[in-house]
Amino acid sequence: MFETTFHLLIGILTLTLATGNECSRDDDEVWNSKLLVSTFNIQVLGKSKVSKPEVTEILYKILNRYDLVGVLEIRDSSETAFPGLVQNLNDHAGGHVFEYFTGRRNGRTSSKEQTGFIYRKEKLDVVVVYERDDPYDVLEREPTIARFRRVDSKGSVREFTFIPVHIKPDDALAEINNLVDVCEEAERLHGENIILAGDMNADCSYLRKSEWADCKLRNNPKYLWMITDQEDTTTKSTDCAYDSGSQPFSPRGPVKFQKMCGGPVDFQKLKLSQNDRIERKSNHQRLLLRKNLSIRFGIALSRCSISSVVGIMAAKVFWAITVALIIWLKLVACEDNDGECGMQWKSKLVISAFNIQVFGKSKVKKAKVTDVLLEILDRYDLIGVLEIRDSSQTAFPRLMRQLNQYTGGEDYGYFTGRRKGRTTSKEQTGFVYRKDKLQLLTVYESNDTNDEFEREPTVARFRRIDSKGAVREFTFIPVHIKPDDVLAEMNSLVKVCEEAERLLGENIILAGDMNADCSYMRKAEWKDCKLRQDPRFLWMIPDDYDTTTKKTDCAYDRIVLKGSHIMRNSCCAKPFNYGRKYHLDKDIVEKVSDHYPVQFYLF
Questions:
Q1: In this structure, are residues 269 and 7 in contact, taking their beta carbons and an 8 Å threshold?
Q2: Which of 167, 207, 351, 564 has the smallest number of CB atoms closer than 10 Å to its CB?
Q3: Which of the following is catalytic: 166, 190, 480, 595?
Q4: What pLDDT, in 10s, does the model give residues 387-402?
Q5: Would you call 427 a catalytic residue per the annotation?
Q6: What domains are defined for the chain?
């Protein structure tokens, strides 16, 4: 039967950990508008459990942490236990803070279960709720599906579909495969942004390693698994990732979920009283609150200003707490995994693309400009430099010599593609990479026999030097799209990526100045954009970002990934505001470029 445990709350911890990087007021607002979303198998929640004050007091503390939680394994034929729990939760929270609803009671035997939904009414509205039709009786407990809309307008993801699931242990593979149909139906009916989370019994004896090859949900590149197989989502002596954040959403269209490694949070490290850390022993069951897993939506924490903090001592205390919080956020997923995630964090690559705007002999001679460029370039392990316009082809090598002098050695390798363009104003793409981290495998110019591009991309394949990273090899394709032909050139990039994958293998990074916003690419045109509509591609820079340094507010520069493996091991894409970071005058910022670099982390 089922494990006698509190199962983990499922999902991912979403954060952009740019330690020391100032965050703008816009960043603050998005972070402050985050949602904390969870699922929780409370294990046979009924009248007996809710009658135990020592248990319910802890449940109130847990449930009050979240903006939305799916409660699994409600077993109560009277259907009074869950409403009573939520009523007491509101009393505990000091008012009518939470709304709730339940799905119908499901199950083939007399031991039927319900799924409960609890949400903060000040943050979320319910759009629609329905029971998934299961005419072939594939699922022991067919999911209840709910679409939510955020009340505020600040969050990146305005609407999403939440599908908590409890998979039958004996039919784990068959039921998990059926969830593909569940998600596709939900997306067809109500739109993108799907969160599938819960007790999938997706490990150990219920789903063995040899069976993963036949798991459609796992192998379908439209879906992204966020909880690794190494996590332990149980509170007993078992070490199993039963509760999976598998496929929390389908990455179609402009994906707004910035992702980082997910992992368990040990409840023993929360500020619970000694009485809260209880064990209840009866019928050989052990109830000990230990771990939870959560989903955070939105842009995450970086170091923010503390203008409102008065006094030096108060500021020191604030920063101490902030630094501790950042470290905790970076390591929270690793605490119970032998430091594996920490190893991955240390071995991350920081990858960028940067349109330096008419980079040539004139710009490289300006000391104030090159000083800023050297600081920017030294941030990255790999960067594609766009809009090199220099017929003498001396400016970029000169900048690279200065970069290696700046770093005190021969740290960086570089190369350029050929000069391209239909007019006399031709451009090159430059590649800069740390030689101690990356090895160049091959470079080629994309074949453009039909003259579809003003500047056909230069394609490069890299291999990591160390063996710790999750993604060992990848293909990097910096691009600069012609403003007047954005839709046509973006559609042609699908073929460029397919050719690169056929020739060099999976894991494709497409990044650069795509002019993919404002007057060059209007909202009405997105439906015709193959690169955007093809579910094999993951867009990492949202439409509402500003990647420009001037008065415009446009997401011209983008990062797009192809390949399920690289999607699962990338996060934290954003523009880098070098003006704010280096405290530069607006004049210097704009002399460097009219674009910000866009960057992300590859693990």
A1: no
A2: 564
A3: 480
A4: 999 999 999 999 999 9
A5: yes
A6: 25-344 (3.60.10.10), 347-602 (3.60.10.10)
